[in-house]
Amino acid sequence: MDRNLALEAVRATEAAARAAYRRLGQGDEAAADQAAVEAMEDALAAVPIDGRIVIGEGPKGEAEKLFVGERVGSGGTEVGVAVMPLEGSSIIARGGYNAVSAIAISAAGSFLKVPNIYMEKIAVGPNLPDDAIDIDAPVADNLKSVAKGKGVEVEDLVVCVLDRPRHGNLIEQLRASGARIRLLLDGDMSGAVATAIQGAGIDLFLGSGLAPQGIMAAAALRAAGGQMQARLIMRNDADKDSARGIGIEDFGIRYTIDDMVPNDVTFAATGITDGPLLRGIERAPDGLVSRSMVMRSQSGTIRWIEAVHRSRRND
Question: Are the CB atoms for 44 and 81 separated by under 8 Å?
Answer without folding.
Answer: yes
